[in-house]
Design a protein that fits this description.
Two copies of one chain form a homodimer. Chain A has 356 residues and is an alpha/beta fold. Chain A contains 13 helices and twelve strands. In chain A, the strands form three sheets. A six-stranded parallel β-sheet of chain A has the order 2-1-3-4-5-11, sandwiched between helices. Chain A has a four-stranded parallel β-sheet with strand order 7-6-8-9, with helices on both faces. Chain A is elongated, with a radius of gyration of 25 Å. At the A-B interface, helix 4, helix 5, strand 2, helix 7 and helix 12 of A face helix 4, helix 5, strand 2, helix 7 and helix 12 of B. The first copy, chain A, binds a DNA duplex (30 and 30 nucleotides) through helix 2 and helix 4.
DNA sequence: GGAGCGATAGCAAGCGCTTTCTACGGGGTA
DNA sequence: TACCCCGTAGAAAGCGCTTGCTATCGCTCC
């Protein structure tokens, strides 16, 4: 059988209550007694029964981190930073102790997102960090709002990371805080860079239309074009698809078919840009000699593709860490519960002036 | 307050026991009664209290997945596949129901590996999947063996994925199964490919020396060289470092300093290869014209770097899925508890015959 | 020198669920 | 018609921990 609190108590010749208090450190215990208890714990190799503890205390030390795609470093970096921040023990006792930070992969599916939230609710998670852009489907937003409200009621802290706050914000919103990226500004600066180089016909390989991230980046792109007086039918030069390499590949071919005169292709993110580069190479076009390419996110590999990708850097790790700290109540909630993190243009080798 | 089983029972005009049985589906309940209960559950938006349930049933529906680096797609792909397999509901009732698969990022630290295992033990996890190569430090192996033994005793199924079984195997081993990759064979075939192209002076950028993965890949490389009669001091042409791009960059510069006559560089994995490529480009060397480069793993980006990387494909997703199924008791344990998955050579554009 | 108080430790009542054992009713069988 | 058994539902005893309350002890303070 496994060792229980009572066993430890017997060995240390104290009551179970005392052992519990030593372990939680939330009640004064004489040093000598504590010593004795800790020794018994060590000797018996005792491990607290989490479920029992959670049941009695009505709260668990589980923290969930939801990601859209665990195989994508974009999410991996945020999740890793959040997790290491959450797992960091600090202070003592249940309140400040290290939590079990777990990441759940929704695969971008709204159903699985809700399923995981239910599962976390079932576990009475202490907090939940939801990363990545949101779906703008009204039904899903309503379902999410309802679910998050229940979670908040049950005492779970909800923090968004890289996702705008729920539309139905205002007081009573179930969200502790939201950390967002300046996708719009980043998209805008990226396109301004291309415009400054002299590009006028720019193709845009966008992400899935219903995601906030997609929309914001595209809005930034369009805003830059508009500011430059380029008003021709941009829909024709834009193509939506998933955030995959394959999509970048296909979309790029399609865009060039629609308009062979393109001098630049902007991708919704670095992964898509990779596909775009591959497609262009297959067509025998040189980058940036014949055509420029730009990505978004500055994932680690962006600097290594040939040629090094011009992109926009997002402070992913910093945002994840911050979300983790806020979830743990270790960092102040930003004013209005909303913090926006800047996006930095990184002009590298994949963009250049169009050749005459 | 949150809704409890008793509340649902009252609404459905049955006993709590009956509600529990409907929810778990492990006991016959009349169709009409079940109907009534399910309606009450839906109307009240009831969510089971996981901790209470786990306490009473002495088992939880949590499954842990340990990874070394969550930002690395190598692990993300395995973890994602395992997670989706584990989260898949199948059959009904507690035994076959969907579990909460959670991934924990150890960051490659042995302490955190043990910490997470303790945390999962505390949660009374139903199973644990440990991915990635193991550390060969005797102290850590002993600690892991002890910890895994306790987990197994507590009823947790342990499955390794991409990691050799514990040395102290044999009967009573705490491990349900181990899925390994043929790193040695893959490494060997990769180097054979280079030898066949005519390379003789090959640099090797290895991973951290104490990891099994590193050792096996290097052993394959050396075996191929030996078979080809190349016996000169290979240690001089090998350099260890972490599995990072930076390490690949530095190590490559160092190796070329040691032996400017290298015609090929083999990296311990694709990420390292990326760094190697960058270093070579900085030196003004063309790949594969001046020097060939090869990676390992065939991560998604491998085909996109310029030029497309010759590498070895590991069936990461398949291995992860299989580990997940075994953890759930949904797939037979391979004979001897050990299954090795093949490694396929992918000869692409980054390798070619050395120029005279 | 006795009352009062602060510092510790123990008692015992749950937390919400599962599960064994018992109860009950309605056929089928002899 | 009496008996059994099957199918179904309920009663109740925990699962191992936390925590409010109570008990004890050694001092300090008048």
């Amino acid at each position: 059988m496994t060792v229980t609190l009572a066993d430890v108590a017997a060995r240390a010749r104290v009551s179970p209550a005392t052992v519990s208090r030593v372990l939680n450190g939330n009640y004064p215990v004489a040093a000598a007694t504590r010593e004795r208890v800790l020794r018994a714990v060590a000797e018996m190799d005792y491990v607290l029964n989490g479920p029992a503890s959670a049941l009695a205390a009505a709260t668990s030390d589980l923290v969930g981190i939801l990601v859209n795609d665990i195989a994508d470093p974009f999410f991996g970096i945020m999740a890793g930073a959040a997790q290491s921040e959450i797992g960091r023990p600090e202070g003592s006792g249940r309140a400040g102790g290290a939590k079990l930070a777990v990441v759940c992969n929704t695969g971008g599916s709204p159903e699985r997102e809700l399923t995981y939230l239910t599962l976390l609710q079932r576990q009475r998670a202490a907090a939940v960090v939801i990363t990545g852009g949101a779906l703008e489907d009204p039904a899903h937003i309503a379902a999410m709002t309802a679910k998050l409200t229940r979670l908040a009621q049950a005492g779970t802290t909800v923090v968004l990371c890289g996702r705008p706050p729920l539309p139905a914000g205002g007081p009573g919103a179930p969200i502790e805080a939201a950390i967002t990226f300046d996708n719009r500004g980043g998209g805008r600066r990226l396109t301004e860079h291309l415009l400054a180089l002299g590009h006028r016909r720019i193709g845009y390989v966008a992400g899935p239309p219903e995601r906030t991230t997609t929309r914001h980046r595209l809005e930034g792109h369009r805003a830059a074009l508009r500011a430059a007086g380029i008003t021709e039918d941009q829909d024709r030069l834009t193509r939506h698809g998933p955030y995959t390499r394959r999509s970048g590949h296909e979309a790029t071919l399609e865009l060039l078919r629609r308009d062979p005169g393109l001098t630049a292709v902007v991708a919704a993110n670095d992964t898509v840009a990779l596909g775009a580069c591959a497609a262009l190479r297959e067509l025998g076009l040189r980058i940036p000699g014949d055509i420029s390419v730009a990505g978004f996110d500055d994932l680690p590999f962006a600097v290594d593709v040939g040629p090094a990708l011009t992109t926009v850097r997002l402070p992913l790790a910093e945002a994840g860490a911050r979300a983790g700290r806020i979830a743990m109540g270790r960092e102040a909630v930003p004013p209005g519960g909303l913090a926006t993190m800047g996006a930095t243009l990184l002009a590298r080798a994949s963009t250049a002036a169009p050749h005459d």
